[in-house]
Predict the 3D structure of the following.
Amino acid sequence: MSTTHACDPVLKDQRALVTGASSGIGAAIAKALAAAGAKVVVNYAGGADRAHAVVEHIRAAGGQAMAIRADVGREDEVEAMFAHMIETWGSIDILVNNAGLQKDAPLVEMSLADWQKVLDINLTGQFLCSRAAVREFLRRGVVPELSRVAGKIICMSSVHDVIPWAGHANYAASKGGVSLLMKTMAQELAPRCIRVNAISPGAIKTPINTAAWMTPEAEAELLKLIPCRRVGEPEDIARATVWLASDESDYVTGATLYVDGGMTLYPGFDQGG
Ligand code: NAD
């Protein structure tokens, strides 16, 4: 049993790594984990300024954070990032596999390079980071003062792990892959006291999908697909991440939490009978 007190922040003294944390959902998650008491590695691939701005935001609020550059699709860079974190903070307790990108094209026009790039970052990146984190979770084992389990992994998926997405075959394939990677890791690692879950966001206002919500016309079209009639904010995803990273969700593993304003319920509403 955890020995933290009821008034302690839920992630007190835990060490978290968030990939792709210099913008959008990842930046909101890094800030929320820090506000919940965790020390946070803000991973980024490019744009060091934005990563350092997230670190400064966390420090200004009294939290602890550091930025580490690594391309999650490259094994050598991922290994170096985890080695740096573990050398600096001793270990890792929480991994959030958030980094991702889109390179959209109709199937017949999609280049092998764009197919491969999206798979490398969105899927292989989650494998490489999870493997590095799990090796450390297993080496260190459970620390009851910190958490009931040896480690937690949260994989950022998408509603397009169940909804096909014409014009985005590489992205949808990567997120479908994340879904079964997550469930398989959860099944394999539950007996070793490691929890693995996924969050599948719906439409969230971030740089990845600006065209979908930037103009009133585009937003009106998007809202037709969302029963809650609200485009999501990065903080909607960040709050769910904090819960999945904490002992509050201790009996949850292998689950996908759809944080989508009901988007995956479409088209079961407003169909006129
Ligand atoms: P974003 O573009 O702001 O964030 C993606 C981040 O990943 C960026 O910071 C980018 O620099 C980083 N990244 C890209 N390649 C990288 C690499 N090789 N190594 C390390 N980092 C890399 O967009 P976002 O919406 O915040 O996306 C975050 C995650 O949420 C992604 O996995 C995305 O697929 C998922 N998602 C987003 C939405 C949405 O509506 N915004 C919906 C479903 C899922």
